[in-house]
Amino acid sequence: MNQRRIWAGLIAFAAVAAVATLVAACGGGAESEPEQTAAQAAGQTAQAEQAAAQAEQVESAEQDARVQVVRGRAALGDPAAPVLIQEYSDFL
Amino acid sequence: MIDELVRTGLARFEYQHILNHGPPSVAAALATECGGDQGRWWDFHDHYMTTNDFSRDGAIALAASLSLDAEEFAQCLDNEVHLDLVEGQHRTAAQAGINRTPTIRINGEGGAVSDALIEQVLEIAAQLESQAGEGES
Prior knowledge:
The complex is a heterodimer.
Chain A: H1 2-26, H2 33-70, E1 71-72, E2 75-76, E3 83-89
Antiparallel strand pairs in A: 1-2
Chain B: H1 2-7, E1 11-17, H2 23-37, H3 41-48, H4 56-65, H5 70-78, H6 83-95, E2 103-106, E3 109-112, H7 115-136
Antiparallel strand pairs in B: 2-3
């Protein structure tokens, strides 16, 4: 899903940039201030989305690693966790 | 719910053996610990809970089906390698007055699984999450 968001952001940015370039060319090369602002805003949005997606990926990877590390014999979880849940059980 | 608490680092979960049914309970507990010797405690436990065959041969067959070393597993069972561990857990629980199964204790307190106990877990989780939120802000 993160990759989809990145691609969607990049495509949106590319489309806005292309339109801005075309308009500037048709207007004799003189790009108006509102067009520049729109292009910059689209670029910033795409960058922000990309950064957020990367942050989510890092967070997810860290959590996965944490879960793997704390999966021990007959116990699950961080030994330093504030709550200790104990199940007393008989198979039969 | 417990899974979520453990995954988020709020809680640690521990399993303790209770041996209320004598030798069959002991054999089943030993089998799980022998699965643990080969790094598959939870795999063995989860599959074992779904079976009705707690015999020696049944445990060995399950071990083999999970691709454990069946010969090593059988030796572990026959030599009762983990007898002190499982009997010790049962004894400690009995001394604490725990004799019903399943029993859940939270930070040393609790009892048989009940709505009140689940409510208690949820309250603790909410408090911890609230504290974590305050710490981050």
